[in-house]
Amino acid sequence: MLRLIHTADWHLGQSFHGQERHEEHRAFLRWLLDTLVERDADALLVAGDIFDVVNPSLRAQELLFDFIVGAHERLPRLDIVLIAGNHDSGNRIELPAPLMQRLRTHARGRVRWLDDGRLDAERLLVPLTDAAGETRAWCLALPFLRPAEVTGQMTANETGNTEEAPNDYVAGINRVHRELIDAARERRGDGQALVAMSHAHLHGAAVSEASERPIVIGGEESISAALFPDDIAYVALGHLHRAQQVGDERIRYSGSPLPLDFSELNYAHQVVEATLDGERLAGVESLPVPRPVAMHRLGPAPLDAVLAELEALELDADLPRERWPWLELRVELEAPMPDLRARVDAALEGKPLRLLRLERRLPQVAAEHAPERIDLETLGPRRLFERTWQGRWGEPPDDDILADFDRLRQDVLDAGEEDSA
Fold first, then answer.
1. Whether the predicted pLDDT of 214 surpasses 60
2. Which range among 12-21, 131-140, 365-374 shows the weakest confidence by mean pLDDT?
3. Mean pLDDT of 168-188
4. What b/e string do you get for 394-403 counting C-beta neighbours within 10 Å, with b at 16 or more?
5. Which pLDDT score is estimated for 162?
6. How high is the mean pLDDT of the chain?
7. How far apart are CA 75 and CA 72, in angstroms?
């Protein structure tokens, strides 16, 4: 039997409406380490988006490295496998890899290609061992695939010649998965399981309301769960913050361990324990993550009703400030209220709460040409581009234009990653 703990989307270093969340992340990592010990885990799989940005703060990096060292001290035989997500810098994830490997931690940030155009699959195959040191499974550790890494590669045809593969992102993703699975099948021994890790958006999976960045090209980047054949015992996925299985019980998003937006307040935040018996999946169990800092989202309602909700909250005045609950208020107004913030601040006086967001909801203006209020924080770059295009040309951008915009945005993000590496 081999016991795996699957988690993803830590987003260490996240700035939550301008506020740091180091204490929450530190509390989660302490709980995770205690859980690994309590469950006597053989391996920890972290399926991407370890950090929130490609250039994380030193404090965010310290959280990761302190956790790895602590895990090795308490569980010397534990295998840890990390892959980069779309928020991560692949180069940064791999930079300390030689040191981390001495702590039985395997970090994979990018795919590489051999001179003959084939995928360098060997470096993506990580052995998972039991308490006796015997290899019981192989982890197919596939980091987030950027378009530049998987499109335009040279492939060998059946006659041994080479030809240019189509410049198609999804086709490139499919090819990488197929080549890696084929290599894993050749490498596995009798009785050894195959465990796939991927940071991707699968068809049919439920996305969050506000907090997930489209990976590259809107919905076109989503891939099929059929990429993971039945001989893959378990598929550990990252990217989507809502914990869920995709069709098959063995194909799972662990979800994020903490809410990353108020829209995720009611998600079941968890890690997943998967138990393997030989080559097959023996069982899956969800382990709820305790929430170190409460979150309250009040409204939408008129101000008096919101303030009544606020007064009804049960609060602990003895909590240290770093554990005070986060608060979002959504107030419906019939007309502009210049002293709204002052009235809210007065109601919060003396309460152990941290107001992060005050949303004002005004009635729709009937005038045909009345300017529309835009909340840039929730709108996002893609929808802002669509609105700007519509206003300039009188029609929405077509799919090709949106694809060009998404590729350009990804190029900017990748350039920022290279500058930070």
1. no
2. 365-374
3. 91
4. eeebeeeebb
5. 37
6. 87
7. 5
366 vs 118 pLDDT, higher one: 118
Determine how many CB atoms are found less than 10 A away from the CB of residue 320. 8
- The amino acid present at 254, given as its one-letter code, is S
* pTM exceeding the 0.85 threshold for the entire prediction: no
